[in-house]
Amino acid sequence: MSDISLLGVLEEQILVAVLRTREDAYGMQIRRELERVTGRELAIGAVYATLDRLEAKGYLSSGRSFGDGPSRRRFAVSAKGARALTETRTVRERLWQGVDVRRLALLARA
Amino acid sequence: MSASRFPSLPHALLRTLLPRAERDELIAELHAEYVERVIMHGRRDARFWAWRQALHSTLPLLRWTWWRGWSGFEPRANAYRPGGHVLKNLFTDARYATRRLRARPAYTLLAVLTLALGIGGTAAVFGIARPLILDPLPYANADRVAFFWRPGWWNEEEYTYLRDKFSGFEHVAFYRPADVTMRDGDAPTRLLVGIAGSSDLFDVLGARPMLGRTFRAGEDAPGAEPVVVVSYGLWRELGGTPAVIGSRITLDGAPRTVIGVMPRGFWFPDPSVRIWQPQPINPQGRNGSYALVGLMKPGEDIDDMGPHVDRLVQTIKERFTYGENGDKTKDAWVKPLRAELLGKMKPAVVATFAAMGLILLIACVNVAALMLGQVEGRSTELSVRTALGATLGRITQQLVVEAIAVGVLAGIVGGALAIVGFRLLAQSLPIGVWADAAQFDWSMFAAALGLAILAALLVASVPLLSLWRQGDLRGALSGSRTGGIQGRGGRLERGLVIAEVALAMLIASGAALLVRSVRNLYAIDPGVRTSGVAVVDFLSSRNFNGDTRIVRLHQALDELRALPGVRSAAAAMRLPLLGGGNSWSAVIEGRPKEEAVFTYFRIVTPEYFSTMGMRVLQGRDFDQSDIAAAADTTHHEMTVLVNQELVKKLFPHQNPIGQRILSGFEWPQRIIGVVNNVAEGALTDKTEASIYYLDRVAWFGSAGSFVIRTNRPSDAPAVLDNARRTIQRVAPEFAIQSVTTMDRVLDKAVGPARQIMSLLTLLSGLALLLGAIGIYGVISHFAARRKRDWAIRVALGLPGSRVITHIVRQGVALALFGVVVGAVVAVALTRLLSTFLYGVSSVDPLAFAAASAALIVIGMAAAFVPARKAGTVDPARVLREQ
Asked: Which stretches within chain A are classed as H helix?
């Protein structure tokens, strides 16, 4: 497990977006998916830079489809990436366990 | 349709930043989304979105490009996509170049050091030359100020008469050297190099003070309140506070008020001057040692001053008459300020600069040849890469990056060398006090780096030329095993070595000329034995004259003689080899004035001749009887010694002893002895008549020198410290101007040629070394390339010695060719050195022959090493390898 580190927020979001978009996981689509779910605008440059970094770390793999339509670089989460996502999620949930969510909601409203 | 077009600026920005492999697909997607947004939210909103995308992408994409270039990461999806990113390629090339350079440490070290030597040297010389040649002079009116004729030529009477008659000039100021002694509390008296001038001197120059003011009109009038302006350096020594203005300092035994401080970096007429004072003018004064500087009227041009000069000469002619010497109506011209102040140094600096530039060029050629060898050695690799799709442009870029990597390394090493070598060079260059003014600054380091990049590009152009000439590298692949690029004649390489030898020939012939010239100068007999003589120059306070001075002088001499290691000590008003001065005419008593001859007069103490190693050839030296006679005021005759030249001129066929002559003194002078001829003027002047007077009869001016002969010649420098302390203790009124040895005086008399010689000899040694490396490299490459041919021939019965002869002949032919080309260019260029040559023509055949012989021998030696290797190799092994 030593070669897996915890993911950053954008890294985590992008890996999840890749999982969500499945075979449609190319750069612009991933960006759109994230914008749609988070409601925040994202620059394509930031998405691409992160995708590349994740691939260099071995969390993602990319390939090209040579069929109908334009040739696009498509991404898929690797086994290592899946482990990293699971690990990050576990840690996050462990952290949240001690938090009283109702009190937090009240605090937010105050 | 134009409404749905992606805005052009964000488009261009993204196109630049995105990697080529994915650029088109990403931009197509962005455009598609833009069109969607125009339809859904309107054009304005879509445009904002496009701008946000481009701007927010900039930083992550720049970071991404950097990181991709650095890490070399290439996504698998792009493996078969064409192109890549320029910046990324540069990074890849840089990494590749670093790896290649690391893998060949010998080549890298040789290339970097060779270039660094050239770059460092040139940068250091640039650092010295810049303030002398390129920087503006520290005077606002520098372009409008001119010198009249020769400085140090004019007298007060002439200036007073001409003052308001200089047409074409607004103001004309005068000045003369006026060193002063300064006594500060209990500290020993010291000498300050100074200038005394008219009150408008600073106005003519357009120089403003940093503190206080410069001279006011009338301050140069006799009886005016004595004031001085000091240099920045002296002001710092006096405390460096504004309170220095208005304070009084004791100069030449009298108090003077400091009225102004010149800014840092100001100098006039050279950086050794630390104090300026107004010179009261005596309208009848005929002492000539003044320089005249004039401020031209606005609109006047220095090149068109001819009519004004003619008018001035006419005015001078009407009022003054001159003898043969010092005729101011001849050779009249006005000289620009820069030419007068810096002119003398220029040839030395330019010659050194040129030599350094040549070394840099040789270094470049050497590295180019090395690199060419490397490229040819890589022909198979380059062919394979071309076959796999690398374009010529891509290979070119890689070679340039490699050359720049070598250049940057060489720039750093060279910059470091420049810093270390700077002081050394400044001291060894014949630029006198300027050496202290030349300051190291970082522009030199920047110059080194700039030069390095230029040199690297120059270097890279050679192998590139070779590559481009071949065009299609793929063809080479098939032949690379048996020949390919390697099979070519290596014409470019040979051309490079010829150029290199030619450049080395330029430097070596220049050095050989200077060596011959300096040997000629040292071969002149100065007439004194310079080794083992210590010299202490002094200046006594002007109010310290007459008998007191004589008493104090002899007290000091007695103490000096008692010092350990001292054989004898004497004093003289002026020493030989300093370029003349103090002359008048002498005639035999009773003969008409027309028969008078030019003589130098020298005032000396007893023991002077033995101390200086001069020989009394006839008669006797001064003794007690002469001292007694000088003290006797009723005795109306002086005793003198004369030199052989005076005897030759005045008493060609007579015994001069006992004869009486008349010269500048009132009383006739009886000759009691004859000494050998001494170079009382400059070393290369023709021999002149000289008369030696005893110091008891007169002493003019306030300057003089103690000379001390030591028991062992090597002790002369060591005794100086002791002598200085003794004089300061016994006679504090004598300010010590400088301490030196007669050997150093002789060295200075030999002049700048000696320093340039040492520098050029050093440089030519470097050039020969680089030349040898170049020839060695090319010949070993040549030998390696034809290894197979040699092996076959040896196998067929050709003796190994024939192979060696053949290869050495190749080396010698290259050297010979280079020598011939170099000699032709050298004939044109050695004229630059002509001002430093004595007794040698600038095309001296002996010097050229020596330089040629050195280069040919070196060529032979450098070729012999690879030749021997080729001649003694086992053919069976070579053929097996092939």
From this structure: 9-21, 27-38, 44-57, 79-97, 101-109
Tokens of A31: 């960006």
pLDDT above 60 for B488: no
Q: What is the mean pLDDT of residues A9-32?
A: 90
Which DSSP string corresponds to B27-87? HHHHHHHHHHHHHHH-HHHHHHHHHHHHHHHHHHHHHHHHHHHHHT---GGGTTSS---HH
Distance from CA of B375 to the nearest CA of A (A): 34
Q: Is B744 in a helix, a strand, or coil? A: helix
Q: Which amino acid is at B7?
A: P
Cβ pair A44:B68 closer than 8 A: no
Q: What stretch of H or E contains B292?
A: strand B288-296
CB-CB neighbours of B869 under 10 Å: 16
The DSSP element (H or E) to which B183 belongs, if any, is none
Checking if the pLDDT of B345 tops 70, the result is no
* pLDDT for position B864: 87
Q: Which residue in B352, B359, B361 sits closest to B455, CA to CA? A: B361
Residue B111 sits at φ, ψ, to 5 deg, of: -65, -45
Q: Which residues have a Cβ under 8 Å from the Cβ of B611 and sit 6 or more positions away?
A: B533, B567, B568, B569, B570, B707, B708, B709
Give the start-end residues of each E strand in B451-582: 533-540, 566-572
Whole-angstrom distance, CA of residue B390 vs CA of residue B221? 84
Interchain CB contacts (distance < 8 Å): A and B = 72
Of the candidates B495, B491, B497, the one whose C-alpha atom is nearest the C-alpha of residue B785 is B491
Rounded to the nearest integer, the mean pLDDT of chain B is 81
Q: Which of B859, B114, B844 is nearest to B510 (CA)?
A: B844
Is residue B487 over pLDDT 70? no
Q: A105 CB near a chain B CB, below 8 Å? A: no
Structure tokens at B814: 């290259």
**Cα separation, B677 vs B648, whole angstroms:** 11
B318: its two tokens: 């009407």
Best B23, B59, B64, B81 member to test A by mutation, with max A CBs in 10 Å, is B64
pLDDT at res. A64: 80
Cβ of residue A58 closer than 8 Å to a chain B Cβ: no
Other CB atoms within a 10 A radius of the CB of residue B658 amount to: 9
Q: Name the band, by pLDDT with cuts 50, 70 and 90, for residue B437.
A: low
User: B686-716 b/e with 16+ CB inside 10 Å = b?
Assistant: eebbbbbbbbbbebeebebbbbbbbeeeebb
Q: For residue A26, what is the DSSP state?
A: B
Instruction: Give me the pLDDT at residue A30, please.
Output: 92
What is the C-alpha R_g of chain A?
A: 16
| pLDDT tens per residue across span B286-334 | 655 688 999 998 888 888 888 888 888 888 888 887 765 567 777 777 8
Distance CA B667, CA B650 (A): 18
- CA proximity to B197, closest of B294, B303, B334, B54: B294
Confidence band (pLDDT; 50, 70, 90) for B432? low
Average pLDDT value for residue range B1-5: 62
pTM: 0.61
Using an 8 Å CB-CB cutoff, list chain A residues near B31: none
Q: pLDDT, tens digit, for every residue of B84-142?
A: 555 566 777 888 888 888 888 878 888 888 888 888 877 777 777 776 667 788 888 88
Chain mean position to CA B810: 38
Instruction: Identify the bridge partners of residue B334 per DSSP, sorted by sequence position.
Output: B148
Half-sphere exposure of B682 (CA within 13 A, CB side): 9
B816-852 residue pLDDT tens: 998 999 999 888 877 777 777 777 888 888 888 988 9
Other Cβ atoms within 10 Å of B595 Cβ, number = 12
Q: Cβ atoms within 10 A of the Cβ of B631, count?
A: 12
